[in-house]
Amino acid sequence: MASICDLFFTQVSNRGQRIAIIQDDRQLTYDGLSRLAGTIAQTLQSAGVRKGDLVGILAGRSIETVAAQLAIMALGAAFVPLDPATPDQYRKTVVSAVQPKAIVCQAAFQEKAAALTGQAITLPLEPAPDAPALRVFQDDPHSRIGAEDRAYVIYTSGSTGDPKGVMVPHRGICRLVRGQDYVPLGHEQVVLNLASVGFDVILGEIYSALLNGGVLVVVPEAAPSLDRIGSIIARNGVTTAYITAGLFHIIAEQDAALLAPLQSVIPCGDVLSAAHVATVRRAQPHVRIINGYGPTEAAVFTCFHTIPDEWDGGPIPIGRGLNHDIRFVLDDNLRPVPRGEMGQLAVGGQGVALGYLGRPDLTDAAFVNLDHADGVRVYLTGDLVRERSDGVFEFHGRADRQIKINGQRIELDTIEHALRKDPAVDDAAAVAIPRLGGGKKVVAFAIPAKGQHVAVQEILHRLREILPAASIPSRLILQSAFPLSRSGKVDRKQLAQGLSEVQTPAPLGHPVPITLAGTIRSVWAGVLDTTINDDDLTFFDHGGTSLQLIEAHALLQDRIGRSFDIALMFQAPRVRALVRLLEGPSPSPAETLAYAVDPLAARRAEMARARNRQRNQ
């Protein structure tokens, strides 16, 4: 099997003057993208990057980010995405484990990159006038790569509290986007680039377009509004969009019309709601809806299910497997169960990762050879499935304590581990409970340390400095002791009992609050499935995530009857501050651009101000 670079070079040769990538008013042909990547590769080579090295990319979605990936791989190295939206400490942990040869970054993140490594390289926006074609670097026998070489290392959360780097070879992505029939793949396709840079689905977006001669359309904002997403889809004639199940549900509720130009939409990353699928089907019957499933360790996806015309509205399966993958349903002894019985899904074949970077213990536990199948190597997903008589797989939850929120994999043990390390906490427990609007949310419990002054919001502030946003509990409840099971373990089921009975706000819209502040509180309460009665807490203090802020923005625009930039909600995450901005003059273009590039900047600045206030008290 060829490498990612081989397949890209074929498109450059055959379609060099065709548009490859678009970002607002910027666009590059396949030849232009090759030369921009060549410019970056030349700089990296001068910096000492060689085959087998790891190179970090600290950047949001952009043309130059895609070019950097290609440049790094053409040198025989592997790239490591470093999401600017993750906490600084999280990135430091990843960089410490990776020890990258260099970090390339967008200009906005140059200072952050320099703090992480001695070799920070700012990405160019355009090819150098004398830039070599990218293929020049692959022609060097010292850089030549094959299907088994590492293409990238992407980090996921781990049950030990430390992130773990999944090493994925070129064959994993190549088999995903070539020789498959789950979605049309060809030069006529226009694919939306909307996934987070730390979410491996972004690689499915990028290379399903670029390795088939299609067009990739980049959404550069870290947290775009629904209006912005819809306008980009319509203006660029997007045909295919991979979006998280959470965002799909929001679109179904708020504005299914924005999907109208699409041929195919692939919700992924979480359990897909049948009710929301039905809503989109009614609104946009011509749009093919394809449920995508797969762990990072199996190169993005391993199963797809197209919702058939005769679908009866019942639970949506994860579907049939991809070509070049092998699937087994196993019992606790790693033996196959009869078809129709439930067991753990194991995935083998071309999509299986090489293992975890620097963690042979974790690799040996998760990647095993099956004696009953001639020693084939598989990844144990930890997902419980049942294979139907027609070969379609149904998903029945996790065998361990891992869940997905907004498409991101969350380990409840990771949250507990982080809480236990807090100086104000003696012990901690975390549970996942259903949200009213579908999906799940995390509620954490903590036993305060003796002699410590404990403030829940201070603990949550400290958590946000070390955990990704999706891992932050929506509530933290202090307990004097935890209930125990008969075996003496913390009884998390008992902790979770009654949480679903917590008072929830009335549905939005009745009665309509007569003040703008009341409207904001009402919208937040509905989105976050909680009561908003403290205007000194931010949207994020109440457990909100960036994805939920997109939903709140859409609802608030509808409720107040006018549009406003979503950057305002990051700039003013408190009720009173948002009221002042919405009732006052609009922010300057520079302010709006700053929050579009790095929307969490306001939140970090607010946390810094809070820490300064505490020190000065």
UniProtKB/TrEMBL annotation:
Domain Carrier: 511-586
A single Gene Ontology CC term: cytoplasm
SUPFAM superfamilies associated with the record: Acetyl-CoA synthetase-like, ACP-like
UniProt keyword terms in alphabetical order: Phosphopantetheine, Phosphoprotein
Phosphoprotein as UniProt keyword: yes
Gene Ontology molecular functions: phosphopantetheine binding
GO biological process: amino acid activation for nonribosomal peptide biosynthetic process; secondary metabolite biosynthetic process
Transmembrane annotation, as ranges: none
One Pfam family hit: AMP-binding
Name of the protein in question: Amino acid adenylation domain-containing protein
Source species of the chain: Loktanella salsilacus
